[in-house]
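Quick one:
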Amino acid sequence: MNKRGLRRGALTLLCTALLLGTNVTGALGAEALPKAPVKGVTYAGHEWAINFWSTETEYLEEDLRQIREDGFNTIILCVPWREFQPYLSNSFFNDYAITKLQEICREAEEQGLSVMLRLGYSWDYYDNSDVLARYERLIWDDTYLDAWKAYAKKIYETVSPYASYQGAFLTWEDFWNFVDKEKTLPGTYNGRKLAENMGFRDYVLSHYDRETLLELYGEEDLAEDPEFPAPDSPAYKLFFEWYDQWLNELLQETQEVFPGLSMECRLDQDPYPLPDGSLAGYNHSATFPCGSAAYSSVMLSASMGYPEGMELNAVDTAAMSAHLLSNSAAYGGKPVFVDQFLYMETTPGYEQLPYLPEEQVNDYLTRMGDVFRRQTIGYGIWTYRDYADSVIYNPEFGLKLKGWDTMGTVSVTEQDGSLMAKLSQGASISQDLSYRNYLSEDKVMFEARVIAESPTTLTVTVGGISKKVTVQGDSLLELEFPGKSGEKIQIRGGGQVLLDNIKLYSHLTEGGIYELHGEPGPYLEGIRACNAAIG
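Output:
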């Protein structure tokens, strides 16, 4: 599963009202907005956002130079809560991640690029604890809220001294996981307790009279003592209302320690039934003002507003995107920043989304440059460089051997400015993958940079399946294993060998701009034209 968050937000848009007339310069002072239109890429080196902070920065200068040459002026970094604050202590932070964040801000400054942050990213490989439990407890446990605010304050204090720092935002996606759990709670003891502890019960009773609640729940006892509603209940809209209020409250509390923080709000709507059995769409417009932030942030997908499976064209899709951005500005009354712009979707499970044919994508991207220039303060794309959804932690040995189990003589050495694992004859490294369920039923791909001075046998074992190969020189080793091959990977050297850039994955997330190993993709021309049109 592609962890941009668990939801892609590309459901069929239920709202058809066109809201116009909002001036995107807003009523707030210009000093709180970016100094120039944002043209950004989400940056994760040569890995992906989940394991980026355990990697090296050996490619940083080269990568940022290429980003600037393609017409971008900003990088967006996902900053995972657990990775930066592994334990719920107001004073304990991950020094490696903090130092890396500072290094990136300094290098961006050198390259003339700005830095924006996606604060609170909910996915990382730091350890095998239940990271989602943090986000659930955050709703009602002050201990978690205090830790969250300490994390946010630490990140702000880390980045704000740099001239390259330009702003930050939360996203609804990173806090939406409880919505899936809520569906299992109606009618259960734990569900009733959580409804009380989380404040849902008090919210409903303070906002609705008994008659209305009886109509929505359809049961007298629930009208008097409301619990979390089932998705097929008309009361389900109450859950969305309460959750949006909580998101707004969390944003405002975080803004106390992180000035200017915005939030990505949902453009699409959530379906819920009406008492007469018809279907309605819940509009999340209550979140669009984004507290004291100078702008509202949104995710925009080319598929939004269209029915499943529909083949799109560049002209109509650009017009629909402009329409959705008009709605965003009207709802929030503030300028709009598109922090995730998706013009294609390759995530497994979303094959039925509306789509642009390949020959239409560059035209759409070019047209969107003018849309972004007229209607937003800028945009950011998610996939600048294709990446493997790899389950390996510390794949480049930037953290030495952390996360790896070793047998025999294994060390970390530097070669041409890169840290690599050095295995003596018969030595091995292995990693537990049991709590990372991102390998599919299809095939699993292994990849690593391997250096051996003389012909050496290398044995790669994924699950219970082993493959032996002979390696020599400096090469890229690629092997294929059956899907769901197992919960452990082991690499054993028959002689002395150096290893680096290890990947194990089932899915490759593509953006069509640069391929996995840096080759230009088919949409590089369109994205450059988009940036040129913005100016």
